[in-house]
Amino acid sequence: MGDAIGVVELSANEPTRPPVPNWLLYHGTTRSCADSVVAGIDLEVGRDSLDFGRGFYTTTNLRQAWHWARRAAFEEGAKSPPAVVWFEVARDAAALLQVMFFLLHAGPAAADYWRLVAHCRDGGSHRPGSDEPWYDLIGGPVSRDWRRRQAFAGFDQVSIHTAAAARLLDTAPKGILCRQPLRTTDD
Question: Of 87, 117, 144, 182, which residue is 20 to 30 A from 106 by alpha carbon distance?
Answer without folding.
Answer: 87
